[in-house]
Amino acid sequence: MDLKNRISQHFEDSAEALALSTKILQEPLAKATFALLQAIEQGNKILACGNGGSAADAQHFIAELVGRFERDRIPLAGIALNTDTSILTAVGNDYGFDQIFERQVQALGMPGDILVAITTSGNSPNVIKAIEAAHARGMTVIALSGKKGGAMNEALTSNDIHLCVPHDRTMRIQEIHILLLHILCDGIDAFLLGDFS
Ligand SMILES: O=C(CO)[C@@H](O)[C@H](O)[C@H](O)[C@H](O)COP(=O)(O)O
Ligand SMILES: [Zn+2]
């Protein structure tokens, strides 16, 4: 396959993955939007975490809550747990890398808060531990995964919402994760700004 064919193949794969995701994720996305709105209306906050590209996604999402998405609205309470290098290095160094998010959830999480947990494999130990800590704090988890969900399947409860992208490649899963996060931002704004009234 030459380079141009390789490039075309990416677009074709991406379109196929998107079409399949639309069918599977429409309902859980609606549930996730309502869960986020409920937390916002109750004065709760949203925590988000992930590793590598998913860390970028977590902070991207939180920036759109605290700042704005497409239109002006009130600032929404959210914290990305992968952004404070002092916390990440101190907790990683003193306790272990698997505890970098767990410890922050234990410190900051309150009943009714939401944890947005992002892992393409579903297997990152620090994200799984954050989910367990969120449950212990009375929080609901919105999990973004792929590759059939991995260890997340066991970590999540029936009260949580699992957005599992039906694909096996990390890059494709990440591309769809950012779409899902933008869909959640759009849904939140549509309700807060009265698009459905
Ligand atoms: O962005 C990419 C690959 O596209 C990488 O940085 C990737 O996020 C890292 O390898 C992560 O450590 C993968 O973790 P996870 O998605 O399995 O939780
Ligand atoms: Zn990447």
Automatic annotation (TrEMBL):
Pathway as given in its UniProt record: Carbohydrate biosynthesis; D-glycero-D-manno-heptose 7-phosphate biosynthesis; D-glycero-alpha-D-manno-heptose 7-phosphate and D-glycero-beta-D-manno-heptose 7-phosphate from sedoheptulose 7-phosphate: step 1/1
Record EC number: 5.3.1.28
Cofactors named for this entry: Zn(2+)
MF terms (GO), sorted A to Z: carbohydrate derivative binding; D-sedoheptulose 7-phosphate isomerase activity; zinc ion binding
Residues that bind substrate: 51-53, 64, 93-94, 119-121, 124, 174
Further details from the record: The reaction produces a racemic mixture of D-glycero-alpha-D-manno-heptose 7-phosphate and D-glycero-beta-D-manno-heptose 7-phosphate.
Name of the protein this chain belongs to: Phosphoheptose isomerase
Organism encoding this protein: Pelistega suis
